[in-house]
Specification:
Blueprint lengths: L3 E2 L2 H5 L24 E10 L13 E9 L12 E8 L2 E7 L10 E9 L5 E9 L11 E11 L6 E12 L22 E8 L6 E8 L9 E8 L7 E8 L8 E8 L2 E8 L14 E7 L7 E2 L5 E4 L8 E6 L4 E6 L18 E6 L2 E4 L2
Parallel strand pairs: 1-13, 2-6
Antiparallel strand pairs: 2-3, 3-4, 4-5, 6-7, 7-8, 8-9, 10-11, 11-12, 12-13, 14-15, 15-16, 16-17, 16-18, 19-20, 20-21, 21-22
Length: 367
């Protein structure tokens, strides 16, 4: 399988048309989830078709990375845990860490996805274990893990308990993916084997996990790829497959990749930032990017000719990040540096949802 290529020619196409920008945020557009807690990468507890599960009263159960607020917001990555959140008409409510202390095999927990059983009795969590539990010096080794929990809906707020069946989904395959051990530790240069996002293919029923990876044996420091793991219908084990998209020599991080199936087409979305493009080539803005295809393993082409769906506003180029598209085409993200000024103003909260339109290989924000 040869991955689709995302290249400098695609990025240069961004300048051929006006860049679609997300609305500019003000301080009144977002609020902290809880005192002294910053949150970022978020995902709903979904059903097997990808839709957020709906609880009594129309409530939804979500997860997000969270950590205490630091003077330097980048410090949060060394303290990240997955937190459980309740979303309702009243807003967001913090329910605490999703997994109990000492359960995760990493020194911190990075992004993933979560799938509830049809009867809402259990939730399967797919996540990134970063580092090793108990390590004295933080490392950036990343491993993909799954775990199962019982969903308790008997109380005033949902709870996850009886965590069990913790196991590594697949070990890294160094034939196709670069090791995350011993590499750079600078934010934006860290190598990737993270962010597993669940997708059930409506054609055949196989399950997949999309993830951010780094291409093996690349001659470039900018070697981001989108990897994929498959569990065939009716089977238990997962198989690691070669990447389906490569940005080798162009971009280091194709983060939080995920697929939705819409109007008979597969749309593969990811987030990336301007500063992780190779300095020797063209650089796109920080934004949400995508490819589209009529099939899962061939035919991928960048939407809008470039891959860019929309970018942050020019006045605040790092305003939001980590966009995640839901099947109804609503998009969540978190507020990053929202002010656009010389001093960094980390929001650490949910940004207002935006809504997309998709039409073949074209995409944009619905106004």
């Amino acid at each position: 399988m040869v991955p689709a290529r995302w290249t400098g020619d695609h990025i240069e196409a961004i300048d051929a048309a006006p860049v679609l920008r997300a609305p500019l945020l003000s301080e009144e557009d977002f609020a902290p989830i809880a005192p002294d807690l910053g949150v970022w990468d978020a995902w709903p507890v979904q059903d097997e078709a990808g839709k957020p599960i709906i609880l009594a009263g129309g409530r939804q159960l979500w997860m997000a990375l969270g950590a205490p607020r630091f003077a330097d917001p980048d410090e949060r990555h060394g303290h990240a845990r997955i937190h459980l959140l309740l979303h309702s008409a009243e807003g967001w409510r913090h329910l605490g860490p999703a997994m109990p202390d000492g359960f995760s095999p990493g020194s911190r927990e990075w992004s993933g996805s979560a799938v509830a059983s049809a009867d809402l009795a259990t939730v399967a969590l797919y996540f990134t274990a970063t580092g090793r539990r108990g390590e004295q010096i933080l490392t950036f080794e990343q491993r993909l893990f799954s775990a199962l929990a019982t969903l308790d809906l008997s109380g005033e707020a949902p709870r996850l308990g009886d965590w069990r069946e913790l196991e590594e989904i697949v070990p890294i395959d160094l034939e196709h993916y670069m090791s995350t051990c011993g590499g750079p530790s600078e934010v934006g240069k860290i190598k990737a084997f993270r962010d597993p996002a669940f997708f059930r293919d409506p054609a055949g029923g196989d399950d997949y996990l999309l993830f951010a990876g780094s291409q093996a044996r690349s001659r470039s420091e900018y070697n981001g790829v989108i990897g994929i793991v498959r569990r065939q219908c009716g089977e238990q084990g997962w198989t690691l497959l070669p990447p389906i998209v490569s940005a080798d020599t162009l971009n280091n991080e194709l983060e939080r990749p995920h697929i939705i199936f819409h109007a008979g087409l597969y749309y593969l979305f990811w987030s990336t930032q301007r500063h992780v493009f190779a300095p020797s080539g063209p650089a796109g803005p920080t934004g949400l990017y995508a490819m589209v295809s009529p099939a899962l393993f061939e035919g991928w082409r960048p939407v809008n000719g470039s891959g860019l769906v929309f970018a942050n506003p020019e006045a605040a180029p790092a305003q939001a990040y980590s966009w995640f598209v839901l099947p109804d085409l609503s998009v969540t993200s978190f507020v990053d540096d929202w002010s656009g000024g010389d001093d960094r103003n980390f929001g650490g909260a949910f940004a207002p949802f935006v809504h997309l339109w998709l039409a073949g290989d074209k995409a944009g924000i619905a106004r």
